[in-house]
Specification:
Number of helices: 7
Helix content: 40-55%
Radius of gyration: 19 Å
Strand order of the largest sheet: 1-2
Largest sheet: 2 strands, antiparallel
Number of strands: 2
Structural class: mainly alpha
Number of domains: 2
Distance between the termini: 38 Å
Length: about 170
């Protein structure tokens, strides 16, 4: 199954659940809709994206549309643009949540918080340059385009931009 088909199925399941919520929940307040969204709908839109990310912008937009639909159901926020609704609710876009999860996973791996079976997942390179964060990851080279969306490649691009304080922070465990 390709990623576009998988995204379409995830959105279809999420929309069905969202339709059930809309028809069965009388209260359209933030306190009524947000917990249902977080527990029942969002997991479908975030399923199976730990190792891959939607490859095409149309797939990302399709997933984000489900979140926009859910936030529009809240009565006092229905007139606001999507970004303001998310900010008001304290939510992030699904794309930002994927990036955050990727970076947290890389941090846990690099600080020794994950299993030994992950050995070799990332290639590390220490750097003494003053313009980077001092702890660089090497980006692999791949022949297949689909591999360019894997977590190992996605994380390296954003890891380079992190401040030194974030990279050198002690692990919380």
């Amino acid at each position: 199954m390709d990623t576009s088909h998988q995204c379409a199925l995830a959105v279809h399941r999420a929309n069905r659940i969202l339709g059930h919520i809309k028809s069965s929940v009388v209260s359209r307040t933030r306190e009524g809709i947000l917990p249902l969204w977080s527990a029942l709908v969002r997991p479908h839109l975030e399923s199976c994206v730990q190792l891959w990310s939607p490859q095409h912008r149309k797939d990302m937009d399709l997933l984000e549309r489900g979140q926009r639909r859910a936030t529009k159901m809240i009565r006092e926020l229905e007139h606001l643009p999507c970004e303001e609704r998310l900010r008001e609710l304290g939510l992030f876009s699904l794309e930002n949540r994927r990036l955050q999860r990727d970076l947290i996973g890389a941090f846990q791996y690099l600080k020794g918080g994950l299993q030994e079976s992950w050995k070799g997942f990332f290639t590390r390179a220490r750097s003494d340059r003053t313009r980077d964060n001092g702890f660089q990851l090497k980006e692999g080279r791949f022949k297949l385009d689909i591999r360019k969306k894997f977590v190992t490649v996605r994380v390296v691009r954003h890891w380079k931009r992190l401040p030194r304080e974030a990279v050198d922070a002690p692990p919380p465990w």
